[in-house]
Amino acid sequence: MFSRREFLRKAALLSSAAAVSTTGGLVAGAEGKLSPPIVVFSKVFQPLKLNYEQAAEVAAEAGLDGVDAPLRPGGEIEPERAREELPRYIGALRKRKLGMPLLTTAIISPDSPHAEDILHTAKKLGVQYYRVGFMEQEKDVPVDKQLQEAKAKLKDLAALNKEVGIGGLVQNHSPSGHSYLGGDLGQLEMLVRDLNPAHMGIAFDIGHAVIVHGDGWRPHFEKLKFHFRIAYVKDAKREGRWVPFGQGDVAQTGYFTLLRQLGYQAPISLHIEYDWSDKGANKTRAGLIKALRESSTVLRSWLAQA
Questions:
Q1: Furthest-apart CA atoms within the chain: distance in Å
Q2: Please, are residues 182 and 225 in contact by the beta-carbon 8 Å criterion?
Q3: What one-character DSSP code corresponds to residue 79?
Q4: Which residue, of 77, 132, 234, 287, has the fewest CB within 10 Å?
């Protein structure tokens, strides 16, 4: 539990883009206690087929501040249903004093299916950011050509984001049967280098960064931090294995001290990638809440110790 003052501070961060400075999730000169809101990437809810009321109840019972919902094909919300379903989901969250500060989408250009409906609806409901879709790397096409084509799409998308008043995010993602443009942080820097970070920034995933770059992620981050908007956190072993929070290598990276030094105040998106259900034996509502509580407790300890 936290004080009323702390609750109001977190609620303000979740509900208003004005709570995030012009440098996104970074507030110059604001180094101090690191205590951002924590939302869960609610892909982890999908195996239980929770409705929006149930999803909001789970997030509340787990002590989280909200959700980062997958609004994409096969996600909690299908793209063609955004105008009808997104208000319902956010309404269920708000009844429990929770928020949805960001979304995860499959949008990669203004021509992506239902892109404008999704973005206008999200903006109207107070969503600050959305993650763009993954751009898979093709084997038989020069990488430089693919990066230029992807960057052109992101530039057009940034223009739409400016018009709508919402921020786009590109995530770094390690190979997982597919190779993604921007998974390598050098590629990611090329993709966003000339784009206005208010309209197209990055969601920095420290777990994927450690898997791809090991201890070499930090120099890349220095080049990317102007575009850094949202922190994604999951725990991983360097060799590429997702593990429960506290059993991997993320806590030893110095990343959370860096966030404190940067004055990070935006929400953190907590990702559960390990098998929380014990190979299906505990795939229950209670088991999910237990996994969320344990994961967020470890994450908050990392933040407190930074």
A1: 57
A2: no
A3: G
A4: 287
Q: Is the pLDDT of residue 31 over 90?
A: no
Give this prediction's pTM.
0.90
**Cα–Cα dist 106/132, whole Å:** 6
CA distance 222 to 258: 11
Q: How many helices (H) and strands (E) does the chain have?
A: 10, 10
Whole-number pLDDT of residue 177: 84
Tokens of 297: 């407790």
Residue 22 has pLDDT above 50, yes or no: no
Chain segment 91-109, per-residue pLDDT in tens: 999 999 999 999 999 999 9
Between CA 296 and CA 277 the distance in angstroms is 17
pLDDT of residue 26: 63
Kindly list the structural domains of the chain, giving each domain's residue range(s) and its CATH number in brackets, ordered by start.
4-305 (3.20.20.150)
Half-sphere exposure of 263 (CA within 13 A, CB side): 12
Residue 233 is classified by DSSP as E
